[in-house]
Design goal:
The chain is mainly alpha-helical and about 190 residues long. Helices cover about 60% and strands about 5% of the residues. It has seven helices and four strands. A two-stranded antiparallel ribbon has the order 1-2. A two-stranded antiparallel ribbon has the order 3-4. Strand 1 (about 5) and strand 2 (about 10) form a beta hairpin. Helix 4 (about 45-90) packs across helix 5 (about 95-130) and helix 5 (about 95-130) packs across helix 6. The longest helix is centred in the middle third of the chain and has 46 residues, at about 45-90. It is elongated.
């Protein structure tokens, strides 16, 4: 700008290339700037504006949706494992058993299903593209499992698979006892 106002000139910043890559995807600019760990650059008004723009218009809704889904599944898991399971020992009532079965189905179908698809696709892509690291003993580890979040997510998937394999309601489905009971004379438990 040619005119000054209170000793300052107006400046136009074009942030398109900081947000969008030439191929049309998300730019890696913010990741690169954050990786430098320089507070002077990160506090620049342009970057603050850009980060707020991304958060307010794109990321916040996705984050809140995923976080609320996680909290809901955690509450259902706690209810089915702790509260309802304790009450079923006190009284063997059909509605309580049905609630336990429904909540565990919710956990296994939605959460475990999502994790199996997520990790299955990522592991498949890693092996197809050769993005694996060979460990001693010939074990090939996909390289996408490098962050602690991915390791914890994969451990959660394995834990839920083990829980499903040991689910007492499933082992008692064919027994002569009441529907959805957890207490039966299954040969599985004699091992």
């Amino acid at each position: 700008a040619t005119r000054t106002k209170k000793g300052m000139r107006r400046v136009n910043y074009y942030i398109k290339h900081l947000l969008v890559s030439p191929s049309g995807g998300m730019s890696k600019a913010l990741e690169t700037i954050a990786a430098r760990v320089d507070p002077e650059i990160v506090c620049h008004p342009l970057l603050v504006f850009m980060a707020n723009l991304l958060w307010n218009r794109v990321a916040r809704q996705v984050f809140l949706f995923k976080a609320s889904g996680f909290v809901l599944s955690l509450l259902i898991f706690m209810a089915s494992q702790a509260q309802l399971a304790q009450s079923v020992e006190d009284s063997d009532v059909l509605p309580v058993r049905v609630a336990i079965f429904a909540s565990r189905c919710f956990i296994y179908v939605l959460n475990l299903g999502y994790l199996l698809i997520f990790h299955g696709l990522r592991i498949g892509r890693a092996y197809m593209s050769g993005s694996v690291k060979t460990l001693p003993g010939g074990l090939m580890l996909p390289l996408y499992i490098t962050s602690w979040q991915d390791v914890v997510s994969l451990a959660l998937c394995v834990g839920l698979l083990l829980m499903l394999a040991l689910e007492p309601i499933l082992h008692c489905l064919g027994s002569d006892g009441p529907l959805f009971t957890q207490n039966c004379d299954s040969r599985f438990w004699e091992i």
